[in-house]
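STRUCTURE:
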């Protein structure tokens, strides 16, 4: 039995290594479509299932782990910014406020499916226009949900977090580890 990480994220790869070094990566090519009526928590769980099931078709006897992470402000999902103006808009809206980060995780093994979502609250300092533009100039926000990466230079924007730090990075390692162990998948 092998462990397959169904994610292109280098951050998820690094985080999964805290649990096991023995895994391979197979990126899902599934179309990520969800019902807009779903809550952010249900959306990330749904996307994790879509990604995981697409990869599990080729690995029916293995354990497939998939995940999806979103940043949520005032109930609205902030995806990856389209461009620098979009990143500026997102970071401005997060400035001086608390938002939520949800990561949905799906673990598939044979016919079993374990699905959960983790929530972490993140509070930003009040940011000046200059601080936001300087951060955008690092290019770090370009491929990050909510236009920031807490594991990089984006950490300088964060005043506090309430919950699992690794969840904000993209994989709630402690909870995933427990699910894998409790179900004999490690």
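SEQUENCE:
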């Amino acid at each position: 039995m092998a462990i397959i990480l169904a994610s292109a994220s280098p951050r998820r790869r690094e985080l999964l290594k805290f649990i096991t070094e023995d895994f391979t990566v197979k990126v899902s090519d599934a179309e990520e479509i969800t019902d807009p009526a779903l809550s952010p928590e249900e959306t990330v769980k749904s996307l994790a299932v879509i990604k995981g099931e697409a990869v599990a078709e080729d690995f029916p006897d293995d354990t497939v782990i998939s995940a999806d992470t979103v940043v949520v402000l005032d109930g609205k999902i902030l995806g990856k910014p389209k461009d620098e103006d979009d990143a500026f808009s997102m970071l401005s809206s997060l400035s001086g406020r608390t938002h939520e980060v949800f990561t949905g995780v799906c673990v598939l093994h044979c016919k079993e499916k374990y699905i959960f979502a983790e929530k972490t609250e993140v509070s930003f300092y009040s940011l000046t226009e200059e601080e936001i533009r300087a951060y955008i100039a690092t290019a770090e926000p370009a491929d990050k949900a909510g236009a920031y990466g807490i594991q990089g230079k984006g950490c300088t924007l964060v005043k506090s977090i309430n919950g699992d730090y690794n969840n904000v990075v993209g994989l709630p390692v402690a909870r995933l580890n427990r699910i894998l162990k409790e179900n004999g998948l490690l």
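REMARK: The radius of gyration is 17 Å.
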